[in-house]
Design a protein that fits this description.
mainly alpha; elongated
Length: about 230
């Protein structure tokens, strides 16, 4: 009953479908605008360097990482890692993604509050992602309601982390678009294309949070049903 109840079908499956659609959308949007080269000819790597220097950041390295859309900023190593499809690429899509990651570096440099909050929640969220479901399963099997409730509490921190991540990601994209526009790096249709790529990417975070929220609701409903 834990894995094959109607709560999963009604709550979680639709959220998973939405998440898959969001993933396909970001892939197709990136692919479309990866074919559009910027008029200025600046590469994504050059754009990141320009954004960093424009914000007085000189201690962040730029590295290449394998894969597609595996781009990320690593605050522990102070490194922006750009994927094979982005690094050194002058396409509108690549520039948008790279500028977004540069936006994260700027957030850390400027002490952006939501990213500090996200880092505070992260350790508990990591624990919750690993231990919550085993605790809930054992609690249900052994009919130990406090164990189930503790597992649900831990899982709720996973959702909290994802919710706090949303303003961080939206802000990084907003910083990227503003910088690309004000710096004259992208203009007109190019800028609109970058916005579409970043908008599609942002929706994957929204979909992920929705999926986790539905999982949490399902676990709560299962707990209450078993407790009645």
């Amino acid at each position: 009953m834990f894995y094959y109840d109607y709560y999963y079908l009604v709550l979680v499956v639709p959220a998973i479908i939405i998440s898959l659609i969001a993933q396909m959308k970001v892939q197709s949007t990136f692919k479309k605008y990866a074919q559009v080269m910027s008029a200025r000819g600046m590469t994504a790597t050059e754009v990141v360097q320009k954004i960093l220097e424009g914000n007085g950041i000189y201690n962040v390295r730029i590295e290449r990482v394998a894969g597609d859309l595996t781009d990320h900023y690593d605050p522990r190593s102070n490194v922006i890692r750009l994927s094979d499809s982005v690094y050194g690429n002058p396409s509108v899509a690549s520039i948008g993604v790279a500028a977004h990651e540069a936006g994260h570096a700027v957030q850390y440099a400027k002490g952006y509050v939501p990213i500090k909050l996200r880092n505070t929640v992260l350790p508990v969220a990591n624990i919750g992602s690993k231990l919550s479901l085993p605790l809930i399963i054992f609690g249900l099997i052994l009919s130990m309601q406090p164990l189930v409730e503790f597992g649900i509490l831990l899982f709720s921190f996973v959702l909290l982390f994802q919710l706090v991540t949303l303003p961080v990601e939206f802000n990084a994209s907003r910083r990227a678009v503003n910088t690309l526009s004000s710096g004259g790096i992208l203009q007109g249709e190019e800028l609109r294309g970058a916005k579409k790529v970043l908008g599609a990417a942002a929706m994957t975070y929204v979909a992920a949070a929705l999926t986790t929220a539905m999982q949490l609701l399902r676990l709560i409903l299962i707990s209450r049903r078993r407790n009645d």
